[in-house]
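G., the chain you wanted modeled:
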Amino acid sequence: MFRNIARKFQRATIFEKLLLIVGILVGIFGFWFINRVYLNEPVVSWQFLIAVFLWLLLIFIVILTDSNESIKEELGSIMREHIKETKLLKEEVRLLRMKK
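Predicted structure as tokens:
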């Protein structure tokens, strides 16, 4: 079971690769824009604090999106194993009823 999960983590999907690129771009461009605003007006204002807070929220959303995708893939493999075990239990119950 754990080997199967480890293999899933080693392989990245297209969505995860795209999300990585988007996350890097959000980080770089967000920092660049915030830096430009600060260089134009080197005083920490409310607009500056709001921009930094929103930028950090956007990065947090990208991280949460990736976490949700990983959890979804892991739950899919767990569900497949659960279905296999349920089928085996049904077969075992059927065989036990036949012996009675």
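The longest helix spans residues 46-99.

Shout if anything looks off.
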